[in-house]
Specification:
heterotetramer; A: about 325 residues; alpha/beta; 7-stranded mixed β-sheet; 5-stranded mixed β-sheet; 12 helices; globular; B: about 325 residues; two-stranded antiparallel sheet; binds thiamine diphosphate; binds magnesium ion
């Protein structure tokens, strides 16, 4: 089973279980989804519930908010995060504020899914990783499923959430193969998870970078460096407890993210570690992020712009040696 | 709804807002205050066409909509005061009146931002096979926003039961209609999406009332959305900060001759005594509202972070 | 431009892109690749109406626009390869061809994103009292975006010299025209803003050529924007990943009968020998472009952070 | 002279000096500007150069980009930051990427001004401070004039910049009175400035929070705490040198910003201090930011949500005592 199929299974099951759930977005129906995620769902559920829309990101998102207020459980697919800026107003000014402005009267049980990430030579307008940036906004929840289990299990939990949830699926993961339990289902969307236990350093990451980090960790293992790898899973709200506990144990932390460095989620985590476990740190928390450049098309430049296992390993090595 | 009731509603809105202006000067009400004075015939004329289960989406100039929809003057006034007895607990203020009981989905301070919401609410009604519609208020200025275009297109494509009510008061802040729009006939703009669209005299509550009834019926029949352009005028400044450099006093005076309230009173041949009685009952309501607001309480500051997320899972 | 030259341009675009498809399979070209095959009459027919000082704003399906505008096949191909000899230094790729020399303001991968740009470019020409126009290409899908509405309104309000060229190929990815638009007559949508708007057979380069000449002249006369809807069809998939579930082979075949290239060749009564000569010259250009790209160089990786900010202050 | 007048003088002078400069936005002309900033300019320059626009934030911004490309020097006014989300796509995907995507061929000399900030009981959709958030985007420059001098001087320098510059004017400052030299003119837009020298702690801030911080510093002075106050001025790119030098001297740092806490500019600064002057720190860098809640209307709740002098002073006190 692939990550793509895990997402598809999650959507299908949710729609079978709850007739309030429907999917809408550009090319989710006849086309089968830009990344073939929703392929076959139109045939099963029909065009009312697998709803193709025109190119109108802002209105699709706003209509999702309205439908959620009206008692439905919409899943809005914004084809990719790159187009989410067109819907930014509805997300920040309406979805995120509605419960509050109404003094608690109206919650917005809306799920917005979007593909995110670079690495496929799609250049400056099609390679963003803005999930960490969206995590700035109070009133929404931000999920980053990195595993098949989370791809399968975060959506149903998100649909149970009374508030708006954004799910970012890294497009480079759709083809990832793996095993998934027959009974795999809803998972929690509150906690970070230790994907590899270790003693020497905590590496905090999410999404596609989880796999790059695990690759780096494996390499480091051969060199006698034992890295703990934490999958953040939820970028808003962050699971402080798990983060702080781990770093208090390993005394070193590196944050790896695919977003641009300045003002990304890595900065926030670094700041929180500073505030909360400063006296546990053997050295400064460091960051490996994307280089702050609009993504270049050329392969070698794109590779250099994105976090890579080698760079992650090098950063860890430097940190562990520094205060070895 | 009979014409006398319509008159009563318009008068309530008028006097309520006059009081608000006073209270703003007294710094009891703060933030932005956008008065609806002059436009009362629109809210008063539209609302009777809606049923209790219909959804309403409004703007930041929504005191009139809220009162005409039946939200109590008490809770609206308390909201303006920022008291927790307000219809949005004091979190929203003048621009964000909300009421679950009447399906009033708020004052929205992003121009055009409510249009997609109304589409979604209507879609929900349709998918749930309920006979309700969503009524969406917005101004002439909002028509220039991209979301207007996107929403009208989708509403027709999906045959969504939306009643679009454009309150064309000829200005978006200080921007005159012909500076906002290359073609100022807004009904024509709406008609091009393939929906019925008609202008109506927004200074004549009976005309609005009739047009709204017809429009709502058409929407409920399943034919899809309907666009009503109510041509009206705000007598007051855009907000309390506006020196009104962009229009002449003479223009305002010309429109005031068409004031919907005395206009209707004349048509109904209201006697002085009848008017006085009506004024008195309205004044009592407004006074009561002020008393209610004055007597309200402040939400404890410890509760600041409530309502960012729901307190229970759905 | 004479019809034979138009034929030559269309053929160059066709063969160039066929080669690109091949090179994509060979992984020499990566990322997204959106082919224009079938739509060549639009680019070939429009461009001759433009002067060298006019500005052009394009989409991600812009190889045809770039070549017809006169950007060399060499530098376009090198761009596809990601080489620094490419027209965007290899930073842009297929979706972001740029060329200052011909005022080609790029491939834009945000659908509808180029519309406001063209408006601004046109405004600059007007404010600088220069006689140039901005020509803006976009698809039927882009017409649903809010920016379409905003831009057309403003273009008329400001009498901006924009030539809007809508390439209506009946699909936005897999979304058929009538799923995108409540009213599928896109010229009608544009006309409502108060500008001349007309459909033209986008499979007939001579018709496009004539219509473009007329339209450009009208724009240059100072009358404001003009909207041309070129009805056309893409013969290939949306991009290289598209399994084309949304349309039938028969539909595609039906349109292929109207292929603009053999169509024009027939009308010009080109002999086999003439066609062969033309093919040969085009093939040489394409081959040369591939050689040029192959021989190009990679930008040093140390330069990664260049072009985020300008290297000098203005 | 007020801050408002300083901005107006800057616009007027720029337009007099360079005919390529023009101002466009909603109600900048006949209305005189939502905050009366452009009052009188229509009369001087006419409707071509003081250009009223319809409500179309995305297209106005995009048209500004186009006009800049076409040889003009547009100043686009987005009435307030709250509406900038409607223009986010043009800013992030076009203005910020154009130079790069074109391989250096086309720069975008565009200035975008917007009013920012809360504190006027305008509630959840009209009180944002997103300047720190925008600082995430490579390719743009982000300025936050806090003083009359900067209100007067940053605009001309921004107009000389070949790349897009965003200027955030805190609306609560427009009425601020002060002296301004007759010859006041262009100022640099690269450096942070020490507004109050001090020994015990560095407080880094910008915009309206500068004044709250200076108020706190004054109060602390009476208690024998000597705070250095730095006005960041430019949020992108940050002036690392000034920041690091100061904190290396005082060994303590507090960042104060009006934006929401998670993922704001304060987080980025904290992370940079961590990475660069960790071994100089006597204790963790702390933050005083807005509480993460959509802004409530009620006065007492809004006051509690925003940074206030008392809260800033309390944070400093705690930090200085901790490792006194
Ligand atoms: C997206 C957005 N842009 C700008 C504003 C500032 N603004 C508030 S009201 C207004 C005018 C709106 O005019 P119109 O839609 O005609 O409504 P009216 O005020 O006349 O009732 C403007 C520009 C806003 N609130 N939202
Ligand atoms: C704002 C935005 N939304 C979605 C996409 C993904 N996308 C790329 S092309 C396309 C279809 C556009 O159709 P149309 O405008 O008709 O142009 P065509 O591809 O047919 O030439 C879509 C949905 C995008 N690039 N930009
Ligand atoms: Mg109006
Ligand atoms: Mg198309």
């Amino acid at each position: 089973m692939t990550y793509r199929e895990a997402v598809r299974a999650a959507i299908g099951e949710a729609m079978r279980k709850d007739e309030r759930v429907f999917l809408m977005g550009e090319d989710v129906g006849r086309y089968g989804g830009c990344f073939a995620v929703s392929k076959g769902l139109l045939e099963e559920f029909g065009p009312e519930r697998i709803r193709d829309t025109p190119l109108s990101e802002s209105t699709i998102t706003g209509a999702g908010i309205g439908a959620a207020l009206g008692g439905m459980r919409p899943i809005v697919e914004i084809m990719t995060v790159n187009f989410s800026m067109l819907a930014a107003d509805q997300i920040l000014n309406t979805a995120a504020t509605f419960l509050h402005m109404s003094g608690g009267q109206f919650s917005v049980p809306l799920v917005i899914r979007m593909a995110t990430g670079g690495g496929r030579q799609l250049a400056a307008q099609h390679s963003h990783s803005l999930e960490g940036w969206f995590a700035h906004i109070p009133g929404i929840r931000v999920l980053v499923p990195a595993t098949l289990e989370d791809a399968r299990g975060m959506l149903p939990t998100a649909l149970e959430d009374p508030d708006p949830v954004l799910i970012f699926e890294n497009a480079s993961l759709y083809n990832m193969e793996g095993e998934l339990d027959e009974n795999a289902g809803a998972v929690d969307i509150d906690t970070a998870k230790i994907r590899r236990a270790g003693r020497d350093i905590t590496v905090l990451t999410c999404g596609a970078c989880l796999w790059k980090t695990l690759e780096a960790a494996k390499q480091l293992e051969g060199e006698g460096i034992d890295a703990e790898v934490i999958d953040l899973r939820t970028l808003r709200p962050l699971d402080n407890a798990t983060l702080f506990e781990s770093v208090s144990r390993t005394h070193r932390a590196l944050v790896v993210e695919e977003g641009w460095r300045s003002g990304g989620i890595a900065a926030e985590i670094s700041a929180r570690l500073m505030e909360n476990v400063f006296y546990e740190l053997d050295g400064p928390v460091e960051r490996v992020c994307s280089v702050e450049v609009p993504m270049p098309y050329a392969r070698h430049l794109e590779d250099a712009a994105l976090p890579q296992p080698a760079g992650i390993a090098a950063a860890v090595r430097k940190m562990v040696k520094r205060n070895g | 709804m009979n014409p006398r009731e319509l008159l009563g509603r318009m008068l309530l809105i008028r006097r309520f807002e006059e009081k608000c202006a006073e209270l703003y000067t007294a710094a009891k009400i703060r933030g932005f205050l956008h008065l609806y004075i002059g436009e009362e015939a629109v809210a008063a004329g539209i609302m009777p066409a809606l049923g209790p289960e219909d959804a309403v989406v409004s703007t930041y100039r929504e005191h009139g909509h809220a009162l005409a929809r039946g939200i109590s003057a008490n809770s609206v006034m308390a909201e303006m005061y920022g008291k927790q007895e307000g219809c949005s607990r004091g979190r929203g203020g003048s621009m964000h009146l909300f009421d679950a009981g009447t399906r009033f989905y708020g004052g929205n301070a992003i121009v055009g931002g409510g249009l997609p919401l109304a589409l979604g609410l209507a879609l929900a009604e349709k998918m749930r096979k309920r006979p309700n519609l969503a009524c969406c208020f917005f101004g002439d200025g909002a028509v220039a926003e991209g979301e207007f275009h996107e929403t009208l297109n989708l509403a027709v494509l999906w045959k969504a039961p939306v009643l679009f009510v454009c309150e064309n008061n000829y200005y978006a802040m200080g921007t005159r209609l012909d500076v906002s729009h290359s073609v100022t006939d807004l009904s024509k703009k709406a008609a091009v999406y393939g929906m019925p669209a008609a202008p109506v005299d927004g200074m004549d509550v009976l005309a609005v009332h009739e047009a709204a009834g017809k429009a709502a019926e058409a929407v409920r029949s399943g034919a899809g959305p309907y666009f009503l352009e109510c041509r009206t005028y705000r007598f007051r400044a855009h907000s309390m900060y506006d020196p009104e450099l962009y229009r002449t006093k003479a223009e305002v005076e010309e429109w005031k001759k068409r004031d919907p309230i005395p206009g209707l009173a004349r048509r109904l041949e209201m006697t002085d005594a009848e008017m006085a009685a009506l004024e008195k009952s309205v004044a009592e309501q407004v006074e009561q509202a002020v008393e209610f607001a004055e007597g309200g309480s402040w939400e404890p500051v410890e509760d600041l972070t409530r309502f960012v997320y729901s307190e229970r899972r759905a």
